[in-house]
Structure to design on (205 residues):
């Protein structure tokens, strides 16, 4: 076809049906867990649980974008990864701001709610990570999806640890510490995805 260059949709690879199904499952589960964690975070007054809820919402958006770009030209997948990397980075900044407010307010969260909800979230995220594991070495777009799932599972374990520490100490600083750690993880992962996507765009992938 006239005008079809290396970055056109004419050169887009056929979507992997298994990857598409995995993304749909991940999308639905993340939307459901966003609702569960959002309600629970307000009940528990937990900033780390709220941060995890916002992360679920961001990941749901990421999976939706990933589904949209399947089968498109590689350049569009790389551009999508740039957007997702920026979203991950922005999420990290949001969590830092919310954490500063929580620290100044001196709120002590409810550890039981934190622990049980983060355990449920961990099971969900581990399932999603297993579904997406085989696709982690793809382009920047696929790599960003894998990093989101991996980070979520690590974040859930951290929130569970914070719940135990809050219960043991009766203070809110463990919740604050985990929120800061989740923010740092989002910032570094977002920067890595942005860097990978820019490399692909410069290489004309």
């Amino acid at each position: 076809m006239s005008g079809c260059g290396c970055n056109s949709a004419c050169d887009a690879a056929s979507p992997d049906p298994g990857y598409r199904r995995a993304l749909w499952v991940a999308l639905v589960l993340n939307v459901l867990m966003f609702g569960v964690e959002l309600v629970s975070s307000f009940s528990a007054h937990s900033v780390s649980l709220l941060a995890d809820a916002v992360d679920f919402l961001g990941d749901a958006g990421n999976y939706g974008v990933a589904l949209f770009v399947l089968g498109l030209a590689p350049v569009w997948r790389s551009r999508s990864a740039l957007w997702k990397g920026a979203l991950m980075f922005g999420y990290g900044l949001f969590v830092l701001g919310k954490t500063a407010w929580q620290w100044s307010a001196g709120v002590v969260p409810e550890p039981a709610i934190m622990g049980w909800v983060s355990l449920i979230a961990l099971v969900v995220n581990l399932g999603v990570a297993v579904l997406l594991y085989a696709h982690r070495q793809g382009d920047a777009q696929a790599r960003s999806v894998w990093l989101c799932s991996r980070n979520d599972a690590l974040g859930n374990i951290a929130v569970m640890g914070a719940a135990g520490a809050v219960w043991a100490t009766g203070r809110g600083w463990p919740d604050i510490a985990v929120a800061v750690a989740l923010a740092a993880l989002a910032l570094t992962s977002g920067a890595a995805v942005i860097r990978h996507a820019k490399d692909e765009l410069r290489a004309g992938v």
User: Anything to note?
Assistant: The longest helix spans residues 74-105.
